Amino acid sequence: MKKIPELMAPAGDFITLSAALRAGADAVYFGLRGSNMRAGAKNFKTGDLSKIVRECRKFSAKAYLTLNTIYFDGERAKLARELKAAKKAGVDAVIAWDFCVLELAREIGIEVFLSTQASIANADAMASIYRNYGVKRFVLARECSLDSIKKLRANLVKILGRDAAREISIEVFAHGAMCVSVSGRCFMSQFSCGKSANRGECLQPCRREYKITDTAGSTEFALGTNYVLSPKDLMTLPFIEKLIAAGVNSLKIEGRNRNATYVWATVSAYRRALDFYAQNFGKPDFDADFAALKGELRASLDGAFNRGFSSGFFMGKPVGDWISSGNKALAKKRILGHVLNFFPKISVAEISVDDAALCIGDTVQVEGDTTGFAEFAAGEIRRDGICVESAKKGDIVSLKMPLRVRKNDRLYVLKNV
Length: 417
What we know:
Layout: E1 6-11, H1 14-23, E2 27-31, H2 49-58, E3 62-66, H3 76-89, E4 93-96, H4 99-108, E5 112-114, H5 123-133, E6 137-139, H6 146-160, H7 162-167, E7 169-176, H8 188-193, E8 211-213, E9 220-222, E10 233-235, H9 240-246, E11 250-253, H10 260-280, H11 286-301, E12 309-310, E13 331-343, E14 348-353, E15 358-359, E16 363-368, E17 372-377, E18 381-383, E19 386-388, E20 390-391, E21 396-400, E22 410-416
Parallel strand pairs: 1-2, 1-11, 2-3, 3-4, 4-5, 5-6, 6-7, 7-11, 10-12
Antiparallel strand pairs: 7-10, 8-9, 13-14, 13-22, 14-21, 15-20, 16-17, 16-22, 18-19, 18-21
Helix pairs in contact: 1-10, 2-3, 3-4, 5-6, 10-11
């Protein structure tokens, strides 16, 4: 079987954590409130760390804690407490770039992955940090191309020698939002809203529509339907085999601010692509079969939240991809209803249809604080014990479930836009 990279998924809360793990993530990255670059996500409390690790272990997945903001004097004690709690809980590594975190993590004995915020894009910088701090994984700057990753790999061997170079792991963003600034180093939110992007508080004023008024105030122009500072989303699925060939060890999906539907869709698609590659690389007709699968998976990703797709910097500068026109998802998540009762022996739930109609074959999602997340196609629908083709608002029906659900779990249905 061909070796493939780790697939790393985002988790902004326990529902998206469940979605990532059930979809097949090898690892999950997450943040604590006030200590990561996605302050807008629900995030977790320090006391949640043990539960997060336990959930990851159920699926043989690793748990990575993001501590990738800048830190000021006076915050060292809080940071130390978080690192010690992560170590005690069994967190596999922290993602950071502030040297205070690197020093404390080394003292406490927890591994550090160097965040993309450090803008690492050359082998000399990697070798220096490896020698001085023992960092073995680097999340490369977003501006690195496929060719530069290959050269970086070769240069690491020249600088460190083959054995040491093998210890270095390269992680790249494979899917999700891109920032118009250099690796996220932007002050627009700080200046316009008083919320610093480098503290994880970015309100994304760049992604709004703007009007231009001349200095005399007599003429005003709207900048059309496009958002001029809002890039398209990154998608590497069409050339994922090139990332593998370039020596990438971990593929990260961006999206700790996004919902479970997005996490499930993206992780599921990349999981299928990676597994197919591992099992079929080198077989007759592999190229044609893999291309067909990637086409199918690309179509499935069109249904999840996206601003249009781009290859990012991997194929060169994305000159034409810095303008998007908002969400282009082809499917909309609508409220279906909630669980009234569950019969575990037959795995059937009695549900209340509270809003959108349900038809056999519809894609249904279930979310619950204890249940987590699952997505499935609706099978047999029964109303008053009789099989029906559909259910409408106000109906009470029974539906087969793929997992144990609980009373008041929330149900949604995906409908094409």
